[in-house]
């Protein structure tokens, strides 16, 4: 693991630890406030913070276990285990947070009555907003730093990142701040109008918010677990370097897969120039693999296979995958 990778891992752990500490304190305060006020919105927020606390523990487990080195049973390492634990976070957000918020909201609307004195709720919400803001600021700081390191705008980085821990914390904290505002609105409208339905609506809206976050996190991690392609810029660079090698006559196929945070597998099929000996081909493969790993430190393994470019079955598979042969530009029209 390179020094930048270690620094990024330490920063991710710090972000998760900070979120864990904030959510644990907030969860305890919200539970007390929910019991004292009887508010559905406050109860939904308490469940939200309990789920977030549990989620940070899952993220820490994922960060630790995914860093284990490769072994005989796992030759490409354990990097993808991080995505499994983060996917469990998405399930927990929905199962522990959203469903409870829906239940609280519907029950309050049907019963037609809610909590009485909201003053404790207001105080807890205000303190929670400050603590969540501190955690959110750390998550934003890390995401911006990671985006700058990748040379990408923040939104583009969030769409392409293979590091789900910081993204999870950012989404959780953003949802937490929004949920606090919804809970405050539910309490306030209930107090102003005397209608408990507003407290129930606030709880249901918190449930909708948590469902959206769970779906977003689930989609990101599902794509990474299935086997997402590496960053398009890396793929283009690898393609250009291989195609430009003097020993290569044709780049027949190129497949990349993200196998962990900042870990990429590269497989390429190459048509070598006629006249090369088997020794020339072997030395060229070793040189090209070393050059790719030097140019892109995130490349973990490189597999290069000599093949003829006119094999019809191989060409058909490449065209089916990409829509055109890699050794030529796709035609239009």
From TrEMBL:
Which is one Gene Ontology cellular component term of this protein? membrane
Q: What membrane topology was assigned to this protein in its record?
A: Multi-pass membrane protein
GO annotations under biological process? Answer: zinc ion transport
Q: Subcellular location, in the record's words?
A: Membrane
- On whether Zinc is a keyword of this UniProt record, the answer is no
- In what residue span(s) does the Cation efflux protein transmembrane domain sit? 16-225
Q: Which UniProt keywords apply?
A: Membrane, Transmembrane, Transmembrane helix, Transport
According to the record, the signal peptide region is none
Primary localization? membrane
Q: Which InterPro entries match?
A: Cation_efflux, Cation_efflux_TM, Cation_efflux_TMD_sf, SLC30A9
| TM spans (from-to) | 12-34, 83-102, 122-140, 169-189, 195-217
Task: Note the superkingdom of the native organism.
Answer: Bacteria
Q: What Pfam families does the annotation carry?
A: Cation_efflux
For molecular function, the Gene Ontology terms on record are: monoatomic cation transmembrane transporter activity
In its UniProt entry, what is this protein called? Cation diffusion facilitator family transporter
> Which species is the source of this protein?
Actinomadura rayongensis
Q: What is the lineage of its organism?
A: Bacteria, Bacillati, Actinomycetota, Actinomycetes, Streptosporangiales
């Amino acid at each position: 693991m390179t020094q930048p990778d270690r620094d990024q891992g330490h920063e991710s752990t710090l972000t998760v630890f900070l979120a864990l500490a904030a959510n644990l304190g907030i969860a305890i305060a919200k539970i007390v406030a929910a019991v004292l006020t009887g508010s559905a919105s406050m109860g939904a927020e308490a469940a939200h913070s309990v789920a977030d606390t549990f989620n940070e523990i899952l993220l820490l487990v994922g960060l630790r276990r995914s860093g284990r080195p490769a072994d005989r049973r796992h030759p490409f390492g354990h990097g993808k285990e991080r995505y499994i634990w983060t996917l469990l976070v998405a399930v927990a957000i929905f199962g522990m947070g959203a469903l409870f918020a829906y239940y609280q909201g519907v029950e309050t609307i049907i019963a037609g009555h809610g909590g009485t004195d909201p003053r404790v709720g207001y105080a807890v919400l205000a303190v929670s907003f400050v603590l969540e803001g501190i955690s959110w600021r750390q998550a934003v700081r890390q995401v911006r730093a990671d985006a700058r390191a990748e040379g990408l705008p923040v939104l583009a980085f969030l769409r392409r990142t293979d590091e789900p821990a910081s993204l999870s914390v950012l989404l959780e904290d953003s949802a937490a701040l929004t949920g606090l505002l919804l809970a405050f609105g539910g309490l306030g409208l209930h107090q102003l109008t005397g209608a408990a339905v507003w407290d129930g609506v606030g709880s249901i809206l918190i449930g909708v918010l948590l469902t959206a976050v769970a779906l977003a996190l689930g989609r990101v991690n599902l794509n990474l677990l299935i086997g997402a392609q590496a960053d398009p810029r890396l793929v283009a660079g690898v393609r250009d370097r291989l195609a430009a090698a003097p020993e290569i006559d044709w780049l027949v196929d190129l497949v990349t897969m993200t196998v962990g945070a900042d870990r990429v597998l590269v497989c390429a099929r190459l048509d070598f120039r006629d006249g090369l000996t088997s020794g020339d081909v072997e030395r060229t493969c070793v040189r090209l693999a070393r050059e790719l790993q030097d140019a892109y430190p995130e490349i973990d393994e490189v597999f290069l296979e000599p093949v003829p470019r006119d094999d019809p079955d191989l060409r058909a598979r490449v065209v089916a995958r990409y829509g055109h042969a890699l050794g030529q530009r796709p035609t239009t029209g």
